[in-house]
Amino acid sequence: MHVEPLRKGDSGDRVALLSNTLFRLGLLSSPSSEFDAAVESAVKAFQQNRGLTVTGILDSESAQVLEEARWKLGDRTLLLTAPALMRGDDVAQLQSRLIELGFNAGRVDGIFGKLTESALLEFQRSAGVVIDGHCGPSTVMAMLRLMKVVSGGAPAQLREQVAREGKGPALAGKVIVLDPGSLCADPFITFDIAQRLEGRLIALGVTVFITRSATSDPSVQERIEKTNNASADLLISFAIDSYINEKAHGVATFYYGADAHGVHSVVGERFANLVQREITARTDLLNCRTHAKTWDLLRRTKAPTVQIDLGYSTHPGDMKRLLDPQFRETIVESLMIAIQRLYLSAEDDAKTGTLKISDLRRAGIRK
Description:
Blueprint: H1 13-24, H2 37-49, H3 60-69, H4 89-100, H5 114-127, H6 137-147, H7 155-166, E1 175-180, H8 187-202, E2 207-210, H9 220-229, E3 234-241, E4 251-258, E5 263-264, H10 266-282, E6 287-293, H11 296-300, E7 305-312, H12 316-322, H13 325-343, H14 357-362
Parallel strand pairs: 1-2, 1-3, 3-7, 4-6
Antiparallel strand pairs: 4-5, 4-7
């Protein structure tokens, strides 16, 4: 959904609704119709807690997540709807409980999709309640009764990790989607890196899709759909950040994780760490670490997904490096090693920054 941003200094009914929601979430001491410093601080706290970009401004993305946050399991009947899927904290709670009970509801993303409905139907069959795919009072009560004797929550993470390990170490036959970001000062850089990486991967038997061309600019939703339709094993998105001054610089990598729901992508986090370590070991880019976020690209893409912010367009040093073709080759080399290490077993792994493409060929991992 698109909404006009709310920021410090605004007032009116929308600000009153915002502050009331923040108050009910325990982030604001008292509601207000003025977007003052207290409301701004509460918005920042909410964004931090929900894995959003912390700005203190209520933009469309933050407004959507805030709307989802007000729902608790049992507040409404949950079911598969079309074309817009139901989203909310109550959906995430349902998914978490189904997974803890041993039903495969997929990723805990707070979106009621077909996999969630399938898991709910299986639960209803086993619990002896009406099998309709609707999570209403009777289903919630049956779930609460069973939850008293079941604890856990790791099955989904284990499934994701086992699926990765089951793919084997060879890259041949895997499907990798490369997403060169276009919302940056120089979209040519991200596209060039994607093309260079594409060539390396294709030579090793990988099926590669690039989400945009040099002239096209698909939406985030279109990029997600392209990746999901391709049944991808991995999505790598490239971006170049910016800031209000030129002091911010360095590389950071993001993966799906929602602290509010206690979930994260195991494979996504591992790959983000590998990417971050390999790039910083091979370049002098400042290590801005890895971070869990709930951005739609990370959250709604079925495959493990990372976004790599390769530097800041507002920092002269970062841009000088990224404009150098040889530096971009070093980035691609780092990514190739990180991709391969993702599928290596622990005993085959090597010290960060020491593994080379030639080493992998000699080890018989590449053909």
